[in-house]
Every structure is written in C-alpha cells, then in structure tokens.
Amino acid sequence: MTAATKPSPAADTEADGDRLAATARARDKQKSWFKDFQHRAIEEGEPYVIAAAVSPHEIFHAMDVPLVTNTWYSSIIAAKRLSPHYFDLMDRLGYHHDLPRYLSLPMMTTLDGNPEKAPYGGLPRPALILDRLRGDYAQRITAQWAGAFDCPAFYLDTPSQTRLVPDWWNHAQRNWEWLYESHRLDYQVEQIEALIGFSEGVLGRKLNRDTLAEEMHRINEAGELAAEARDLIAKARPCPVALPDQLTNVMAATWNRGSQWAVDHMRSYVEEIQQRVDTGYGICGNEKVRLLWINTGLWFNTGFYRAFEESHGAVFVWSMYTNFFSDGYRKYFDDDPLRALAARSISMNEQLHLPPWMAGWILEQAEAFGAHGAVMLTPQGDRLSAYGTEICRTSLEKAGLPVLELSASMVDARLWDDAEMQRQVGAFIDTRCKA
Amino acid sequence: MSAGPAHRLEDIASIYADREAEARRFYAHGGRVIGVLGATVPTELITAAGMFPLRLVGDPARGTARSDAYMEPVREGYLRAIVEKLLAGDYGFLDLIVVPRSSEGLLQFYYLVEHIRTTEPELRLPALHLFDLLQTPFDYTARYVRARMEELRTRLGGIAGAPISDKAIADAIASHDAARRGFGTIVARRRTTPPAISGTTALRLAGCGQVLPVDALAALIAEAVTHHETIVPGPRLMIKGSPQEHDGFYRAVEATGATIVADDHDWGETLYETPVGDSDDPMQALVAHCMTHRPSPRRLPQEAVDAEFIARVRDAAVDGVIFALEAHDDTLGWDYPAQKRALEAIGVASILLTGQSYWSIDDRTQTDIATFVRELSR
Ligand code: SF4
Ligand code: SF4
C-alpha cells in the first residue's frame, strides 16, 4: 500500500502543522469544561462527584452535576510532574513499592493536606465518590479516600461475563441483551437504580429520566459519526489523520458524551476527514508501514506516535480510542435507557483487555486498517493491566500480526527512556513489519 | 461419601505432602471429584451431592515451563503453578473445576483457562464453572449470589446424576460445621501458653481439611486434640497476608524459635472460624457465609475485616505479626498502613515482608525473620 501520495503540507512546517481544526476545538472544549468545573465545584462549592473512568457518568450529566474522574486528576498530577512528591508520601505512609500507584495519586493529594502543592489547590470534598469494583484494589483506595474526605462512597459491583463470544463488536450495539447475559444486566440495572436513589439523596436533585433517554440517543448518534470517521480513516491510503488528533477528538466526545456538542463536534470531525480523503491528503507523504497502538495511551508523550514517519515511513493509524466510542459505547434501545446504560459499562474493560475479546477486536482492526504490525504498551508493575497481554500477543502473532511489547512506567514521565523506546520500535519496524 | 481409611495423627504430614492422594483414591473407587480454587466455593454443595471437593494446590518444584507461554510473570504464583499442572494433564480425574470470583486473579484464571480449553481441545482440560461470588453488602447482591449458587447446585446435581435436595445440603452444612467446631479446639490448643500445637502442624491440619472428605477431617481433628507437642516458649506470632499454600514459610519462621499461634490468610485457621449454622433456608445461609465469612480479599467493609484481625491478635496474645505479601501484590498492601497503626495502638510489633516468592524463601527474608524474632525475644 505504498500509494504515491501528495507530499504533506506539514513537510516544512512545525510538527503539528497537519493538525485538524477540530482538534483545536476539542481542546477548547476541554478547557472550558475545566473552567466550568473549577468555577462551580472549586470556587462556588457546588456539590460534585468523583467517578471511576468506566462508570455511568450519564446519570450525573443528566442531573447537571459537575463530575471529574480520578484518572483525569491523576493525569494532571503526572503531567505537572508532581508524581515523585506523592510517591514519597506513599513511602512515608507505608504503602509498599509493588503497589500500582496511578489510581492512588489523587488520594495522596488529599492525605498530603498541602493545597499549595496539589494541582488547582487540590480537589474539594465531593458529595460522593463512585467506584466500580474491577480488580481488588480500587475499592480500597476509594474507601480510604472517602474516609479522608469524610464523604460517602458508592460501589458498583462487577458481575462477570461467563462466556466470551469471539466477535463482541458485532453484537455490542444492538444485540447487547444476548451478548452481556440477562442475569448480569438485571443486576446491573438494580445497582444503577440504587445509585440513582443514593445520588438523589446526597445531591438533593432529581434525575429526569426523559433527559437521560435523550442523552442516550445522542450518544448513539455521536457514536455513528465516530464509526464513519473510523471507516474513512481505515480505508484511506495514505492515512489522513494523525493518531494524536484521533485521540483528542474522540476522547473529547467520549467525556462529553450525551451533549449536543459531542454530536456536532463529531460531525465536523467527519467532514474534515472527508475533505482530506477527497483531496488524497496524507499525514506522511512517504507512508510505507501502518501500525496499531495497543493498550494504554502514551498521554505524556503523544509525539512518540509520530516519531517514525520521517525515519521509517511508519504511521500509527489506530489505537483503541479510534473506535471504542463507536463499537463499545453505542447501545440502541427502544424504551429502557437504564438497561442500555447498564450494558454500556458492564463489560467495558473486558472488551479492551480480555482475551479472546481483546485479540479478536484488534485483528479486526488490523485487517480494516491494513496494518503491518502492532506496538503494545504494558504498564510496568501493574498486575491488573498485565492480565491477558501474553495470550493476546501470541494470538495476534499466530494470526500473522507482528507485535512488539513495550513495558514502561505510566506514572512517572521521567522514567520514560525515549531514545531506547524509539530504538526498539525502529528495530521492530525494520525487521518485522514488511509492507 | 465413605470416609475412607481412618487417618491417624502421624498421617497429617503425609496427607499434607500429597494433597491429591485421597481424592485420587476416591476417584479410583468410582467416585466423582470436583476441583475447587480458593476458599470461597460452597463445598458443602459438593459434599451434599456425594462427591469429593478437592481444593487444588500447585507444586513449587514443578516450575512454570508450560504456563509461561500463557501467563504473565506478574500473575499469582499459586495460580501459575496450578496452570502448570493443568497443562501437564494432572487433573484428568476431575469432573469439574469450580472457580469463585473472589479475587481478580481467580477471575482471570477462569478466563484464561477457559480460553485454552476451547482453543486447544487436544489438551482435554476439565470443564470449568465460574461461581460469580460478589461481595458488596447489598440485598440485591445477595439475591444475585443466591441465583449463581442455585446454578452451581444444578450443575453439580447434573454431574452427580441426581438433584441435590435441601435436606442433603442441610446435612452437609451440619457435617462441615462439626469439622469447623472441631478445628476450633485445635485453635484453642495453639493459643495456650506455651502453645500445645505448633503453627506448622496447625497449618498442615487446616490444609488437610481442604483435601479430605469432611468426615475424615472430623476424625483426624478428634485425634489431633489429644496430641501434644513440646514447644519451647518463644515469641508468639501471627502470619498474615498472601495465601500460604505450603508450609515452607512456617517452618522457616518456627526454626527461629518463635511459634505461630494464629494466622490470617486463606489456608489458615480462618477457614474454619465461623459456622454456617442451622437455618430453614440452608442455601441462603451458605450465600451469607460465602459472601462474608470465608477468607477473601474482596470482603467488605474493610473496617470490619480489620476489626476481626485485631480481635484475633488480642485473643491469641500475639507478640508480633508478620505481614507476608507475595511479589506483585497490588491489593493487600493498601490495607497494611492502617493495620500497622492499629497494632501500634495496642503495642504489638509487626514486620512487612513484600516481594515474597511462591517458589522459595530468599535469604533476605530468612534474615529479616530472624532479626524480628530476636528483637521480640529480648
Ligand atoms: S516523510 Fe512524512 S513526516 Fe517526513 S516530511 Fe514526508 S510527510 Fe513529513
Ligand atoms: S484503557 Fe483500560 S484500564 Fe484504562 S481506563 Fe480504559 S478500560 Fe480502564
């Protein structure tokens, strides 16, 4: 697929010169989201919620309650290079070195009691911390954090999938009742009802279920547009949109899911990609090798995704954020938005991390995007993120997709050895990814 | 189920050393054996079906040559060791393996082995059953677990060839409770001053209870209560933390002159602590017991679990607690700082040993234990 292509207009300008206009709008949206959150929750003291990344935010969106995820605050702490300060605190408090630290950074800002140091002066006491009990340790962090805040915690338990049908993505949008198993959905709906009752109590607001239903329909609409964007990018040669742009745009729609903004934004994103496809525009004029990025995103170093274009003609064309919103979030329903909402988060992590679900989905992407190889990032010293990676890697290799596994710390940007990582990926492209 | 040959006290070490022998004998005589993992499967249902519940245990001497192709090195040692045996064909005599969802490692074990089983049928791995035990303290969770336990009961009945009656379940609960009460007498004997039973013997006996028919266990306990070990008075310790599936760690600790008079992990005395009790609804009693009274890292709320721990420390008049956490622990370490503070508040010493290997005890651990015991002896 070495189609002769127009040279990129980025060629002689700054590295980000081929950024989509939509990307700037997505960033602005995140900034204005934060301003709004800061004003309402931090300055005005409005009740707000801290929620796990994979949990039904839709309920709080529909109640117009400010919400942050613990992972968002962790990423801010890491980006501001404050992780080492909080690691020292963890050591002093007796939390041993093997413990995965990413999720606990926000709690450490609270235990530290030093608002001068914490980003934005630290998070104020929330009305509620919502957690989903994947793994065995999030519940511990949440309980201790809620204790430090003296606020309530609500736990959503995680009923387990008993059978893993190979092609979940073909069933996840319309056939989810069958896919996720009715007994699990029944239980999940009961839990979400309990969460709604509990939240209405502590927040002093009522959930309007019609508003929730409208939001759920808009998520499907935005998801359809994300699917269009994904198909355009998958088919186009050369690749018209850089991975960092894909990440920023789709993540903004995911975090603001349910809003009209997300629908409008995804529409303008699709239109811009379509224009690029129509003119045969490619981000790398010398595209020879197409790569997938598997697992955790490299948030603190998105430039890495583009580091192999000039040197190797290798382009990262896909990561799970490209179409997880379209494949994983869309849940069509007739009359029961709550059950559709239950279906959305019930197997989110399994779809992304469990063999055979993970491997099957990635092979589907490799085919659609015409990928020559995949780079898989596994966080160091993080058991939960490691489960299943071995069998996923061997399944992909068996199916003919070369895989390079990189292992790195996700919490301390200082430990990322860029030269060494570039060397590994470069060698992988040279020796194993033949176009 | 026939109790098989009567065991004598001297047999504890040999039963413990080959924890599959009794089940294999049962199988050789035409019985059906159901493998279980962890401490939270309602084995009473297996007993009630006239089958043999066998808790699976890995063998550190066998290495991980086969399992390494499937399992990341950060996974739980005991689970890697069990997969090694599975892949080697050791478990062909099992009709089913029941995997409870009482830790993430166990859940991931289920998905992994189920994947291997279906994609590599030539390995002829035994069938698996996921018992989706959830442990949040809500009514709707208890209803969910009840339904999962009814499914398990139906599946076991199918294997046994006849449905399992309520009466059979009530009888099985009564037998298991009798063994639990019997184990209580063993616990009382390890608590005396000086202790009448070593920690190593108590651990082995607790382990035998996971691999013997319940009546045979009761008989063995009846023998053991008359047994008396001469123990030179030394520091009284509790072992807490990751599962102690083998006795090497206990032997190493007791070789320093200390005695382990209590433990808190899922191969120790807490397995037998709380009876299920009589009930008009034995299934419901089992649900409550599995959710809250069996050793599991997902029990909630943590304050109640910690309060039990401190009560045990006091009850056993412990001088020191050894927290032994396996390598790559991502769970129990979060509990440790608060537990350490609670111990300090009552003047009990403790030591934290992280990075413990399933396969062997390293020199540094040996030294740390020896130093800790020496300081306690002063
Ligand atoms: S190879 Fe790609 S990155 Fe390099 S100048 Fe050409 S278009 Fe730009
Ligand atoms: S990538 Fe995986 S671990 Fe990270 S937030 Fe998404 S589901 Fe969770």
UniProtKB/TrEMBL annotation, chain A:
InterPro entries: FldB/FldC_alpha/beta. Pfam families: HGD-D (PF06050). Residues 1-22 are annotated as: Disordered. Belongs to the FldB/FldC dehydratase alpha/beta subunit family. PANTHER family: 2-HYDROXYACYL-COA DEHYDRATASE,D-COMPONENT, 2-HYDROXYGLUTARYL-COA DEHYDRATASE, D-COMPONENT-RELATED. This is 2-hydroxyglutaryl-CoA dehydratase, D-component. The lineage of its organism: Bacteria, Pseudomonadati, Pseudomonadota, Alphaproteobacteria, Hyphomicrobiales.
From TrEMBL, chain B:
Coiled coil: none annotated. Belongs to the FldB/FldC dehydratase alpha/beta subunit family. PANTHER family: 2-HYDROXYGLUTARYL-COA DEHYDRATASE, D-COMPONENT-RELATED (PTHR30548), DEHYDRATASE SUBUNIT MJ0007-RELATED (PTHR30548:SF1). This is Benzoyl-CoA reductase/2-hydroxyglutaryl-CoA dehydratase subunit, BcrC/BadD/HgdB. It comes from Devosia enhydra.
